[in-house]
Amino acid sequence: MRTFGYKQSGLDHTIFIKLKEGKVTTLIVYVDDMVLTGDDPGEMKLLQEYLAIEFEMKNLGQLKYFVGIEIARSNRGIFISQRKYVLDFLSEIGMLACKPAATPIEMNHKLGIFPNQVPTDIGRYQRLVGRLIYLSHTRLDIAYGVNIVSQFMHAPSEKHIDAVYRILRYLKRSLGKGLLFSRNDGLNIEGYTDADWAGDQTTRKSTSGYFTFVGSNLVTNRRLLQDHVQKLNSEDLGIEYTKPMKLHCDNKSAIEIAQNPVQHGRTKHVEVHRHFIKEKLDQKIIQFPFIK
Known about the structure:
The protein is an alpha+beta fold and 292 residues long. The protein is built from seven helices and 13 strands. It is globular. The N and C termini lie far apart (47 Å).
């Protein structure tokens, strides 16, 4: 791919991108399957001919199903879901006829690791949570619950696996949910971030999360029990964006610290990150609108 003029993505090494005369062609590789997309039909045809010389290939036509993800198209845009994956999953573990749950996790749950907890089958727990982690790529409505249960992989209890079963029962109720990537001409970039302060019952660490949208379409999301923030890079796709990116935040103190250099004395432990953020504010690359 590099020989043919394609650049390997620095964010995901299975993605190869070529920019030519303002148009983009992208190839994604997964084991022995490839997805080719872009807005340059001529370049896509040349690439297919080139690859056919190097490998024995078969063109399966328009993408409909890929690594457990279903793709449907309409005038509104592209819809991806994992309905078949969920049905197969529930059938394999004998929960296809289970009683549905209204929500994926109990509100104000108190899950943690405590003395004298009743252990459960660790192998089964890890297999179930592993499959839920993969499913949460298109099912963001379960992502928070999956993030919680995945924190107990090394020492699960009966309460933990009950929480896993609740997620599965919720999936039975909501088979058809997924993500819609709608048609639009806007490139407005907006992000939303939040954290539950000291919410972990065992370590009292905070779980933070963020979502990033281009136009009305979700492009990145993450929940993490960590102490650092990921940096987003759109250079691979050659996107030129001149307006400030809006990062919606519900923490007025965090916004003030980021914007006001007088506050720096209170934040020596995050000095490097604070200077990085302040620099981007001054360059008008990002803004911090407050959201309740």
